[in-house]
Write a structure and sequence with these properties.
With about 180 residues, the chain is α+β, with helices and mostly antiparallel strands. It is built from four helices and six strands; from the N terminus they run ααββαββββα.
């Protein structure tokens, strides 16, 4: 720092990082398997294939969705997606995995991702839901399986004020089957 009457100090420019032509390190085997699971999940949503989705979950899996009781076990997962496909038969999904982290022992992993699901709700209402999810995964027979899925929608239900929900106000009931845009 320069004192009064002294010339200001000159800082050396920060050197630019060396350019490299090397690609990002390849995904670990576990990470690649989890990305493959994501691809199969999106494809199963697009085709309404409940059996394929159920196969991606662990036997004792739990799904946590806002405004609804927990879904437990593969039978619960089956019912959850069967009900979803009755309500939104033409569902389509995109997802972007922001983080996939695998424990050094490769017996546990988690994934944080952004999703968008669209489709047509009963009555021909166009439906869209956007948000984030967290999957906790563990290896099972035939590869990685989803042990816990926690979904956090960023979509406000029609007639609901998201700020009121955050401050303890009224929230949508579990019987609200879809998030329709009007």
């Amino acid at each position: 720092m320069a004192c009064e009457g002294q010339a200001p100090e000159r800082l050396a420019p920060t050197p630019e990082p060396a350019a490299t032509d090397s690609p990002a390190p390849p995904a670990s085997g576990a990470e690649a398997e989890i990305r493959s699971l994501n691809d199969r999940y999106v494809a199963a949503i697009a085709t309404g294939d409940t059996a394929a989705i159920v196969h991606l979950f662990a036997e004792d899996a739990v799904i946590l969705v806002h405004n609804a009781p927990p879904v437990a076990g593969r039978d619960g997962v089956r019912r959850f997606y069967a009900d979803f496909f009755v309500a939104i038969p033409d569902a389509a999904m995109t997802l972007v995995a922001d983080t996939i982290a695998v424990a050094g022992s490769e017996d546990l992993a988690y994934e944080i991702a952004r999703y968008t699901v669209t489709g047509t709700a009963p009555g021909g209402i166009r439906w869209e839901d956007r948000g984030r999810y967290l999957f906790a995964l563990r290896p099972g027979s035939g590869g990685w399986r989803i042990a816990v899925a926690s979904v956090a929608s960023e979509t406000t239900l029609p007639g609901r004020d998201r700020s009121a929900r955050r401050s303890g106000g009224e929230s949508a009931g579990a019987d609200a089957p879809t998030r329709a845009r009007e």
